[in-house]
Amino acid sequence: MKRKVDILGQRVAPYLFILPAVLFFLTFMLYPIIASLQMSFQPSLHDFSFSLVNYKRMLGDKLVLTAMLNTFQILIVQVPVMLFLALILASILNSQVLLMKDFFRSVLFLPAITSLIAYSILFKILFMETGLINQALEHLNFIKEPILFLREALPAKMTIILAMLWRWTGYNMILFLAGLQSISPSIYEAAAIDGSGPIRNFFQLTLPQLKPVILFASILSTIGTLQLFDEPYILTLGGPANKTLSLALYLYRTGFGNSEFPYASALAYLVVVLIAMLSWLQFKATGKE
Amino acid sequence: MKHKESKISLIFVYLYLSITAFLSLFPFYWIAVGSTQPSQNVYLNPPSLFFGNQFITNFINLNQSRDILRVFWNTSFVSISYTFFTLFVCSMAGFAFAKYDFKGKKIIFGSFMISMMIPFYATVIPLFLLMVKMDLLNTYRAIILPTLASPFGIFLFKQNLESFPSELLEAGRIDGANEFRMFFQLVLPNIPTVISAATIFLFMSQWNNFLWPLIVTNLPHMFTFPVALAGLQGVSVTDYGQIFTGLVLATLPIMIVFLILQKRFIAGMMNGAIK
N or C: which end of chain B has fewer CB within 10 A? Predict the structure, then answer.
């Protein structure tokens, strides 16, 4: 008995199932990807002739270099420190003997549920001239004058880094915890027979086993940091003197502040290329498997 | 000897954990306290770390200056409808990719997956111009539409539906159900964990979304929480009582859900890590 091929049947149904997703994809993903690539080669919004003017401008634009440098400085400090802290917390919480594991796990994860805007505002108030942090440091006699955390180049970067550490360490800890739980306990039992201590275990057994998860977490964080926007938007607006300007913030300023859409599109593709390159580099750096 | 050593190291471990836990929790406590204090108390030295009684006043001020109830409604409406429609679109697509063989399946699914690696910035300008052309600025649709076909959502459903027993589907077909009735009456009710994980992830991402709502709304009565909050701290005379209250209102709903559904919540958000 052959089934009738009507639109509710097995042959046509999958196309109908994917139809809404495909339509949305074509309109709001594929079209804009192509359109912004094309626009990045346009001299102006309504002039459709092919030109490299935006990319030439990018090469001579000091702010692009500044924004890239700022982003990389934040990236190169924040990501390793965060992954290191997350790794320590995860291996502690993975221990068998610890009490209240679930409590600590949830508490440490809690910052990850806040919106980027909310926690940025929070850190802005904490770190302002008369803020809690300055008050605390003064009470403890660490400083005499308040530190202008958000108005000097280095402290502003540090504040952004600290804020990101607060927001994301617990999140990465959970990632690592999942990785740790998939390591078979038998390799630790074997190591215990060899008389290997916890620190040696960590470096010789845990780290190599976790390599894929660490790679995954570092690529994720790198991609995230390259798109850094909300934190500098709230905390510093890119200041002082563009010392915390991020690529995304510059893109936003160019596109939606100055309506230079073609140039902003070229900047967007710079971000795409950077993300692709850094992800590839991290893959290569951690071995070919 | 060995026993004593491990006891000492355990004390250090607890100390370290407690300090980290304190650092994680304190800001939440602090904004809660701030929302109950008069605005100028943020300058108090030493700071006041106990709850005051100004929450209602702060709330009324905030509602007068920023129409925060409307903002609350906007954010809720946008997040709920976005989650609902995305679940609908993505679960269907994920089901098709998981359980059917059809021409073009690999290419179409592959395109979805590749698009996960494209940052939003690469599409944001044409998307904005598209919204202008469609005359959708300052509408809920403008906020919701662009990310409706979430590749991550499709991936999540495909991944989890692959293990859905095909015999059940066959049995449904023999009973004469068509493919759609089968999907909605047989498949969806049987995958509550996937749906809850996707719901949490999608809802959170929309509730906290900032850049896109910032771009497509400029009328205060269309603002969502992140946009309204970002606007609050830009004004010249900053009312910290209002800001703290806004932060509490924006964070509390998510936090309550988190406290009720901790395990599911974490699982849902970690699924998002694949994105």
Answer: N
- What is the percent of chain A where pLDDT is above 70? 96
> What is the ipTM for the molecules in this complex?
0.89
Task: Tell me the count of A-B CB pairs closer than 8 A.
Answer: 241
DSSP-derived secondary structure letter, B273? G
Q: Do B92 and A20 touch (CB under 8 A)?
A: yes
The more confident residue out of B268 and A255 is A255
Cross-chain residue pair B20–A14, CB shorter than 8 Å: no
pLDDT tier, B234 (very low <50, low <70, confident <90, very high otherwise): low
DSSP 8-state assignment for residue B220 = G
pLDDT over threshold 80, residue A274: yes
What does the DSSP 8-state code read for residue B209? -
Rounded distance, CA A113 to CA B203, Å?
A: 11
The alpha-carbon gap from B163 to the nearest alpha carbon of chain A, in Å, equals 17
The C-alpha atoms of residue B93 and residue B168 are separated, in whole angstroms, by 19
Phi-psi region for residue B47, left (φ > 0), alpha (ψ -120 to 50) or beta? beta
- Cβ contact, residue pair A20, B240, below 8 Å: no
Please compute Rg for chain A using Cα positions. Answer: 24
| Contacts with B46 from chain A: Cβ below 8 Å | 135, 139
Tokens representing A2 are 């052959």
Please enumerate in sequence order all residues whose Cβ is within 8 A of that of B96, keeping only pairs 6 or more positions apart, or say none.
Answer: A13, A14, A15, A17, A18, B102
The span from the CA of A267 to the CA of A271, in Å, is 6
Q: pLDDT-derived band of residue B140, with 50, 70 and 90 as boundaries?
A: very high
The amino acid occupying position B243 is I
Asked whether residue A74 carries a pLDDT value surpassing 90, the answer given is yes
Tokens at B199, concatenated: 């719901």
Contact at CB, B230 and A107, closer than 8 angstroms: no
Separation between Cα atoms, residue B227 and residue B213, nearest integer Å = 7
Q: What whole-number percentage of chain A has pLDDT above 90? A: 58
From B97, B118, B63, select the one nearest B246 (Cα to Cα): B63
CB atoms within 10 A of CB B162: 12
Q: Cβ-count burial of B110 within 10 angstroms (0-12 exposed, 13-18 middle, 19+ buried)?
A: exposed
For every residue of A61-122, DSSP letters joined together read: -HHHHHHHHHHHHHHHHHHHHHHHHHHHHHHHHT-SS-SSHHHHHHHHHGGGGS-HHHHHHH
Beta partners for A44? Answer: A47
**Mapping DSSP to helix (H, G, I), strand (E, B) and coil, where does residue A34 land?**
helix
Residue B132: count other Cβ atoms within 10 Å of its Cβ. Answer: 12
R_g (Cα) of chain B, nearest Å? 24
Residue matched to tokens 């400029």: B218
Confidence of residue B274 (pLDDT cuts 50, 70, 90): very low
What are A47's strand-pairing partners? Answer: A44
Residue of B24, B10, B4 whose CA lies nearest to A96? B10
Mutate to test the interface with A, among B2, B24, B264 (most CBs of A within 10 A): B24
Global confidence as pTM: 0.89
